Amino acid sequence: MDDLDDMDHRILSALRAYGRDPHIANTARALSWAGEHGALWLAAGLAGAAVDGPRRGAWLRGTALTAGAHLVSMGVKRVVRRPRPAHVEPLVRTAGRHSFPSSHATSAAAAAVAFGALGAYTVPPLAAAMCLSRLVVGVHHPSDVAAGAALGVLTARIGARWIRGSVRD
């Protein structure tokens, strides 16, 4: 086992242990369910567009970037094909067998950057909780979550000018 695998193993085991607490396990399961296919973030973006008429275009562009980041992560996952952790019992079922990168973390981080820039200051901490939930439920290695979050941030940063409206509505 190399150093990264060893560190992933130890961190995941420690965080997965928090899932023994029923309150933490239920919260982590709920976050995992809400984040499936980026649903929570897409709904948040559409809600922002619905209630913030003057910035509707920015909200929709942020939502599109979040969805795009999620799709990119799914493509990377199919190329890398890293198996999910086998040394812990997962608390949730997953849509796929592959682990790298975490698509939940990708869409969460993209939403945190995109919607945080629009003043949705509750999104970044919720996105961080979403990322941690993937470890508590035992379905990702920590490096999967870190890579997914980095991919989401990168996608949103690349599209930041577009979100702010440098492209006319």
Written account of the structure:
- The protein has 169 residues and is mostly helical.
- It has a single domain, classed as Vanadium-containing Chloroperoxidase, domain 2.
- Helix content is 69%, strand content 0%.
- It is globular, with a radius of gyration of 16 Å.
Short characterization:
The protein has 169 residues and is mainly α. It has eight helices and no strands. Helices cover 69% and strands 0% of the residues.
Sequence-ordered SSE layout with sheet pairings:
Elements: H1 3-17, H2 22-34, H3 39-51, H4 56-80, H5 103-116, H6 123-136, H7 142-158, H8 160-164
Helix pairs in contact: 2-6, 3-4, 4-5, 4-7, 5-6, 5-7, 6-7
Supply database-style keywords:
single chain; mainly alpha; Vanadium-containing Chloroperoxidase, domain 2; 8 helices
Q: Major sheet, described briefly?
A: none
Rg over C-alpha atoms, rounded to the nearest angstrom: 16 Å
CATH topology, by name, is: Vanadium-containing Chloroperoxidase, domain 2
N-to-C SSE string, H for helix and E for strand: HHHHHHHH
Write down the overall mean pLDDT. 88
**What is the class in the CATH system?**
Mainly Alpha
**Total number of strands:** 0
**Measured distance between first and last alpha carbons:** 52 Å
* SS strand fraction: under 5%
Structural class: mainly alpha
Counted up, domains total 1
> Stretches where pLDDT falls below 50 for ≥5 residues?
none
How many H/I helices?
Answer: 8
Overall, the morphology is globular
Helix content estimate: 55-70%
